[in-house]
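May I ask you to review the protein record following this short note?
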Amino acid sequence: MALAYPHRRAVALGLFAGALTSEFWASPNLVRAQPQEPDQVQPVEDIPDSVLAASADEAERVTVPVMVNGRGPFPFIVDTGSTNTVVSDALAAHLRLPLGENLLIKAATGPAVANSVRVATLSVGARRLTNLSTPVLERVNLGGLGILGLDAVANQKLVMDFRKKQMLLTQSSRRGEDPGTIVVQAKSKYGQLLLVDCEVGGMPLYVILDTGGEMTIGNMTMRTMLERRRQANEVQIISVTGDSMTVPIGILPQLDVGHVRVMNQPIAYADFYAFSQFGLRDKPAMLLGMNTLRHFARVSIDFPAREVRFLLDA
């Protein structure tokens, strides 16, 4: 049976040039109600470095080749905002993956119940996970055949090199960084890294890296403190479960992430479920999406060292 790759609805490029309503896809931010680890994960010290060819989908999100049950490779979206790896209904049907128990997932718009499938093996580069129970969601809502979550890259250093169109998975290390690389410290919470040395307009800000999100999204507390209450433009957000919400959008004149300064940054505002999950609903916080991350030549996420490194384009 042939498997057709999806055509996603593209982001309107003229989002802030007079369009009142546009559309983009939000990160799933998936978390199991009762988290379970794969039965077997290779010890990190036994995993050689993996250099993967990286492509971009229509939303400019990074995709890498993944093998599922020895078949593929299939392009999976790399999503540091998702705790779990996810497969689409199209891929599950194509591979005839056996159904598992229903799972409670936490999507952008709130909790939902999803079907799950059993995956015997999932390989990304040299890393191999076995006996996974993964949520299965509709391809049209995922925007791809699958999502590569934190469970597949945990305890490693993930390097997205946009110039070379590569993704590297390696052990935690300070080696291999170019001069001029900017290091930002982070806290670890539920497997995620929260950048803390950040601010907007002189206001301290928590930042979560969200490579599965097309757009940077701030919470409503951040918007209120910035007094941006009368923006006319709006954007429609569609979560991985198919739920949607219409939210205000704006532009940040200046965003400081560590010692990196981003000017005139487009941003949407929504009280995503993820902010409550991390205890950030009442604190200024944002999900840093791909429309911001692609300003850099390379982004390195070192989970064990709790550091994120940014290399600016020359």
In short: DSSP finds five helices and 23 strands in the chain. Helices lie at 89-95, 139-142, 220-225, 273-277, 290-293. The radius of gyration is 18 Å.
